Amino acid sequence: MALIGPIIKTALNLHDSVSSTTNHVEAQKKVLKNLLKTAKNTSFGLYYDFDGILENNDLEHAFAEAVPFYDYHKMDEQWWSRMKEGKPNITWPGVPKFLARSSGTTGKKSKTIPVTDEMIAAIKAAGTKQVSALTNFDLHDDVFESEVLALGSSTDLSKEDGFTIGEISGISASNIPEFLDSFYRPGKEISSIDDWDERVERIAKEAKNWDIGMLSGIPSWLEMMLKKVMDFHKVDSIHDIWPNLAVYTSGGVAFEPYRSSFEKLFTKPVQIVDTYLASEGFIACQQRPETSSMQLITDGGIYFEFVPFQPEYVEQDGSISNNAPVLSMADVELETDYALIISTVSGAWRYLIGDTIKFTNIDHAEIKITGRTKFFLNVVGSQLSVLKMETAITELQEKYNTSIKEFTVSAKKIDGEFHHVWYLGTETETSEEELATALDDSLQDANKNYKVARTKALKGVQVHKVQPETFSKWNDYNKKKGGQVKMEKVMDEEKFKAWEEFVSSL
Questions:
Q1: CA-CA distance, 226 to 185, in Å (whole number)?
Q2: H-helix or E-strand spanning residue 222
Q3: Is the pTM for the entire model greater than 0.70?
Q4: How many C-beta neighbours within 10 Å does residue 477 have?
Q5: Exposed, middle or buried: residue 180 (CB in 10 Å: 0-12, 13-18, 19+)?
Q6: Which DSSP string corresponds to 472-496?
Q7: Cα–Cα distance for residue pair 444/388, rounded to 1 Å
Q8: Termini Cα distance of the chain
Q9: Quick check: 382 and 458 in contact, CB under 8 A?
Q10: What does the pLDDT look like over 131-151, one tens digit per residue?
Q11: Which domains does the chain have, with CATH numbers?
């Protein structure tokens, strides 16, 4: 019987009722004003006259007019590179202690993004908001006094040029307050193991000693870990090891492609709660059981802007054109794809994070991630977002009663004509030709631009089946292995050629 659980649950419920934000437009105005006031005497703030912007009655418009869009490379070359040389007050007061190494799926080498004390505090506050929101779900009191297993990156952070460097999940885990240590697993010792396989092996050995009620991590890697634990202890369900497991906070990628395979690991209900934590900050988390959408953290350390994600505003490399319109929270519309622009307490300004989102509920500031600006397949006008691809893949899984957890696609010229070439990680006996037809039909039904493209420049669709583990082997081959690594859903010509050569070598 849970004794402390009801007390913890009541305290969290009280925190949620006190800390919840209802007026997201006003909350965002306050965040922008605080950002500008705090950074007005930095090199960036002086260059763009933050003092002058603060005198304007329409703060959002004045800010958008004065400061151009930045992507990582422009921000790093023009501003952060000076901060990384140890110079203070460049885009944020002082010099940050941490740099977050991005484990993202794009770019030829990792990015390092400043993480200030203010950002760490904002991430902690958002995490507390997320945990407090769990009281909105129908969870047993036992869950609130059980332990949390967070499968992220190593907390064994490196030191370089005066900075502590690691992935954001590792930085966050290394800054967990001492009073939470007794609830946090796998603990700092195991979390500091850099080798992924060794860390999972240690987790498997220790698993029986823990009472895990909540899990957190990217689905692909978490599923692999759960299977290792089950194999080690020779059980058929993870609930044989952790009977109180009732919550899984997913993040990084869409969960739906993994749902069927995850459910095979459980013998009790597990509530799936979605989150959106990026190297640049904690952006959103699911707050309500009646929706799978996530609520933007509008009262934290991030100011959000939104650019309509339309071909005329998006360059081939995923960047945003200078003439693109930009909207604040007050102007967004439902079910419209937007490129997300953020300004943060880590000194990122009008920064293109690379994700696209859509609003599902404006009053609640609730969103779904629809894809990446670079993973937008539009070579021949098909205008396919990752969300539409994932929806079609989910339909394929249901139609053929199979599992397709990973995929990648590219527009490829075959005999002088463009085709979409898909690689699906599946063990289904359904033929590649039948899968291609079903996938093509599903996308034509869901996307009018794709349907038009199929009558013109997009001449065909090919599907290649590969073993599901091919994708993790590819990440391993590219030295991208661990709890925060995501598979590229769309590849350019050069990367796709390397991918096909890799697959043929297996």
A1: 14
A2: helix 219-233
A3: yes
A4: 14
A5: exposed
A6: HHHHHHTT--STT----SB--HHHH
A7: 11
A8: 52
A9: yes
A10: 888 888 888 877 778 888 988
A11: 5-9+139-279 (3.40.50), 17-118+291-374 (no CATH), 377-505 (3.30.300)
